[in-house]
Amino acid sequence: MRGRFSPVRRSRREGADTVSPRSAGAHPARQDAALPRSLTRLRQRRHPAGPFGFHPGPTGNPLDMSPRYRNGSNQAGTVIAIVADVMAVILGLWILMYLLDANRGNDLVQFIHSTAAWLAGWSRDLFTFDKEWARVVAGYGLAAVVYLFIGHAVANRIHRH
């Protein structure tokens, strides 16, 4: 009786029974003998650079394509991206605190406000909307977007070289 997990399978193209090498206990080096002819030919024609045209790294992982991803420039790019993210988070926090009318007497709110004012000093009064909240969102939001864009562009450039 052939059950669902039987080692004997019928090949769709060949129409013949073949035995699965893993379940039948075949030696891993001789797995080609139990495979249908079409799969054996595909295995023999395998490109030496791998299936997608690049050489896998020393660990066999195709993401380890080149040694440049394992050196110090990767860390420098990551640090730059993290610094840009932290600056954008501080600016975003101030926008959120302003819109939610946070207590300005609180030390944390004062720290976030002074840091955000320093970071967005160049863009704070760039726009002259009638509403104060629109000026805050536009001025500090522009600074956050610019820091994110420039920080990640520089980080990606460092990652590439």
Please outline the helices and strands.
Layout: E1 8-10, E2 17-19, H1 21-24, H2 37-44, H3 72-99, H4 107-119, H5 132-160
Antiparallel strand pairs: 1-2
Helix pairs in contact: 3-4, 3-5
Q: Gist?
A:
51% of the residues lie in helices and 4% in strands. It has 161 residues and is mainly alpha-helical.
What does this structure look like?
The chain has 161 residues and is mostly helical. The chain has 5 helices and 2 strands, in the order E-E-H-H-H-H-H. A two-stranded antiparallel ribbon has the order 1-2. Strand 1 (8-10) and strand 2 (17-19) form a beta hairpin. The protein is elongated, with a radius of gyration of 30 Å. The mean pLDDT is 76.
What's the number of extended β-strand segments? 2
Distance between the termini: 61 Å
Low-confidence stretches: none
Class from helix and strand fractions = mainly alpha
Helices and strands, in N-to-C order?
EEHHHHH
Major sheet:
2 strands, antiparallel
Radius of gyration: 30 Å
Strand content: under 5%
pLDDT averaged residue by residue: 76
Strand order of the largest sheet: 1-2
Helix content: 40-55%
Globular, elongated, flat, extended or rod-shaped: what is the shape?
elongated
* Count of helical stretches: 5
From the structure above, extract its key features:
161 residues; single chain; 2 strands; two-stranded antiparallel ribbon; mainly alpha; 4% strand
